[in-house]
Write a structure and sequence with these properties.
The protein has about 150 residues and is an all-alpha fold. It has eight helices and no strands. Helix 3 crosses helix 8. The radius of gyration is 15 Å and the shape is globular.
Length: about 150
């Protein structure tokens, strides 16, 4: 990793970062209002951060998930969620859609991925999952571009 000093965009433009955190609060409230399990919400944040390689967000959301009672096993197998029986149909639908939105540059969100989610989730839940993915991808990019410190 390069040691080039980076501008911390959150501190450089605090009004913009504050708007992002306000959006985060709104998206969290929306996810709760449409009935998404708070543990699933954390798993979606973790999965997007895994795909994006954001160590800062991974550390934060894994810690949050564990504090909320998520099992270490489910977190450990999250990159291979499709190969396990740890996840419900709702979890799987939300994870698949989150992955598709996060990997949008690899072929957009396919009808297959969208329809698989829509077959299990309500329209409100589909929208909330998409907003969670958008939000997490934004936070990942802030942390990665600014090289937020992750030290042991």
């Amino acid at each position: 990793m390069n040691n080039t000093q980076r501008v911390n965009v959150a501190k450089q433009h605090p009004v913009s970062y504050k708007a992002l955190t306000a959006l985060s609060e709104e998206v969290q409230q929306t996810a709760a209002a449409v009935g998404l399990d708070p543990l699933l919400v954390e798993l979606l944040k973790i999965r997007a951060s895994q795909i994006n390689g954001c160590a800062f967000c991974l550390r934060m959301h894994v810690r949050d998930a564990l504090k909320m009672g998520e099992s270490a096993d489910r977190i450990a197998v999250l990159p291979g969620w499709e190969e396990t029986d740890y996840f419900s149909d709702t979890d799987r639908a939300a994870l698949r859609l989150t992955e598709a939105v996060t990997r949008v540059s690899e072929g957009h969100v396919s009808d297959e991925d969208y329809n698989a989610a829509a077959a299990v989730l309500t329209e409100d839940q589909v929208s909330a999952v998409i907003w969670l993915a958008i939000l997490m991808n934004a936070f990942n990019r802030v942390a990665i571009a600014s090289r937020f410190t992750v030290a042991g």
